[in-house]
Structures are given as C-alpha cells and as structure tokens.
C-alpha cells in the first residue's frame, strides 16, 4: 500500500507527539471492562498515530483497549479470539487491493457478527468508491484518511461505541430473556432445595456468561436448630465453604449478605454483588456471584427478572414438596393399615422400601433397563414398594395369622391379596393425573408374585410383561421374608437365602435384579440390617 501525503495541519490525526510511537492505550481499568477497538492497517505509522490520537479516551467510564492487525487474515484470527470487539478501523488495501472488503464479508457472514461496528478508512478512495462500498458492504462508516483529524476520529469512535452498546444491549436482552425462560423451566424440574440452589448458581453463571464462583444462602428466622444464615450451595472458589457451612472466613461478604436481608434488596458493590430473593412462604435467599466487571444496567434488569422467576420456581418447589409429603404420609398410613393385623412382619415394609431403592440405584449403575429407570421411577419406586401387601387387609385373620403352612384352599384365598391390592390402588390412582405412588404401588401389588418364567400369580405374566417395579420388589420381598422369622418359619442365614435367590434367577426372578442384589450383599452395601 502506498503512503498517503497528509497536510501538515495541527489537527491532523497523524500527530506530532513527544512519544516515539511505541506507547499503547492506557492499561484497562481494573474496575471497568474496556471497550476493545481493533486497528487493521498494513502501515505501522497508522497504528501508532491512531493510538496517540485515542490515548486517554474513555466512554461511560470505560477505557479503550486497542488491538492491532497488519493484514485481513491476521485481523480475522483476532476477531475469532475476541468476541467482544466493539469497533474495527479497517483499511481497504493491504495484502490485496480488496483485503478490507473481503474481511467485512467474512466478519458478517462467516463469524455471523452483526454487532461490531466497522469504519472503513482508505487512502485510495478511487479503488473503493464510497457509494458502491456503502451499498454493497455492511459497514457503518466510510472515511478517507485525509478526513480523519483527531477530533473527527474521536467523534467517529464515540458514535461507534454508542451504536455498539445499543446493539449489544438489545442482544443481551434477547438472549438473557431466552436463558431466563429456559432456566426457569429447568428449575421447575428440580425437587430438592439443595439441588434447586445449585441450579440457581449454574443458571446465573450461564445468564451472565461468567465464572462459576458463587454462594447461595437461606435465612432461617425461627432457627429451629439451624444456623440463622445457612449455606445451601457453593461453587467454584467457594467450594471450601461446603464443609464448614458458614461464612466466618468471609466476614466482609457475610456483612453484605446480612445487609441484603436487612434491607430486603439486591446490593451491587462489586466484587460483592448479592441478589435478594424472597418467596410467598416467607423464605429469603441471598445469592452472591463474581462477575469480572461491574454489571451494567441491562444485566441488572435481567437479574431482576431472573429473581422473580427464581421466586416463582421456589414457590413451585415448596408446593411440590408439600404435596409429595402429603402423598408419602398417605402411603405410609395405608402401609401401616396393612401391617396392623400382621404383627410379626414388624418393619418389613420399611426394609423393603430401603432395599428397593438400593437395588434400583445399583441397576442404574449397571445400566440395566435405562429406558424404564427414569427420574420419576427412581423417585417413587421405593416409597411405592411399601404398598406391595396392601391387599392383605381383605385376608381373614385365621389365614393371615396361621402359624403353619396353608392348605390349598387357604392358599388360594391368600393369593387373592395381590389382585385386591392392585384393584384398590388402581381405583385411587385414577384420581391423580400421571404416574404416582398409587399407580406404581398398584403395579407392585399386582405383580410382585409373578414369576419371570410365567409360573407365578395372579395373571401368570412372563419376563418383560411383568412391570419392572414388581420384578424388583419380588426379589426384595422374598429376600427379607427368608432372613426374618415368620409365623410359619424360622429365619434363614444370609448364605442360604442368597443360594435360594440365585438359584431362581431366570425362573422366579429377573436375573438383572438378582445380580444387583448379589452385588450389594457381596460388597456389604445393604441399606439396613437384615435378619436377626
């Protein structure tokens, strides 16, 4: 590219300065994220003069960070590395006569970057006529180098940054609202408070595109044996607090969080940014996170909307847990009713619940039936298992409590408990939409005496036709019954019990369920003590 001869004007953008030209833009403030400006020109003097002209300039208390590239190819690589470049001052003629124009096309098309502002600067306007360039290329301004005095360069820079800021704000709002809707949907799926708290930290990190350092605390007003300020979730550099569970090692942060609770509002004192979140049931939460730079107005507005969605999601979690607790209480009451007359079974149903959950977890680890063992199934199968013998409420005492073996007629009456239990629970399950403890309990009650080879009762179902929940409880029920005393038998040893169960894998029992139980027994991972 040929050199341009510029008039020796005192306002010329190629300033005569005491500097030797090696000085770069002021170091970015530690407190404010700088605006990145990319200078693309094959002449070193142009870079030096531009840096001198823009030295010390700031916009909205944010300084400039000037980057340099000496060819279109080098500029493209920088743009791939820095996604937040606000302005490009771009020469046209560099390694080729249209290198700058080619770069414009690659920025808009290949990088799909429509927000960076591009000011085309040329010393040879005849090779890139202004009207043609403005019409055919997505640039934001066109200047000849003779036009760009210091003042005009300043004006062009600030105007470009203002336009970039507006576009970024619009895009942040669009993306932020989309992320809020997505994150709220994700939070609605979480069913424990600590899981919910961890989810909130992850979503804030994604919303602001920041690191994962964060803390979520809850305020316990009534205490009830819990600390007034309880940490529910930590991430990143704060993970060391998970063990202690308090903020004694972070006194300043603890003070800001207490201020948030007292004033019931979010406080932004970078780097101590803390959100305040309240819910309808009067629970209060504080969320601290660590953005690299102070948040701008758009980000704060998005966080306000996010806090409202978090509050609604927490209220949903609270109502879900209240409903679930009520359902569990109903299930326990029904199981107690079934056990009330069968005093020798003792804590049989509670052991069945714990072992059912343990076997299901082990089967997930062994990747058995992944299509059947989803989150909903895993959440409910243990509690539903305690309803397996609910049908015994209809079994006469002289049969249920008989100390010896049952005769064929008595056996037929006893076997009716499977069908009766399934029918009782199925009728109740129709009142609840979707899967529930009652619907799963109905499967278990009706199927836990079916055999894998089809020789069980009451319907002689075979293999995969037997619900998975019932196949698990079938093994658990026999395992516990053999290890414990019954009116008709003494307890068996663990060795004899496992020999019996392993011997019926594939005939009476699902082999995968037996395998999971065997692993728990061999590795001494049974959830409770079985046998006397």
UniProtKB/TrEMBL annotation:
Modified residues (4-aspartylphosphate): 91
Record field: compositional bias (Acidic residues): 7-21
InterPro entries noted in UniProt: CheY-like_superfamily, Cyclic_di-GMP/3'3'-cGAMP_PDE, DUF3369, HD/PDEase_dom, HD_GYP_dom, Sig_transdc_resp-reg_receiver
Keyword Cytoplasm: no
Region Disordered, residue ranges: 1-28
Keywords on record: Phosphoprotein
Gene Ontology molecular function, alphabetical: phosphoric diester hydrolase activity
SMART domains assigned: HDc (SM00471), REC (SM00448)
One biological process term in Gene Ontology: phosphorelay signal transduction system
Record-annotated HD-GYP domain positions: 323-532
Residues of the Response regulatory domain: 36-160
Protein name from the UniProt record: DUF3369 domain-containing protein
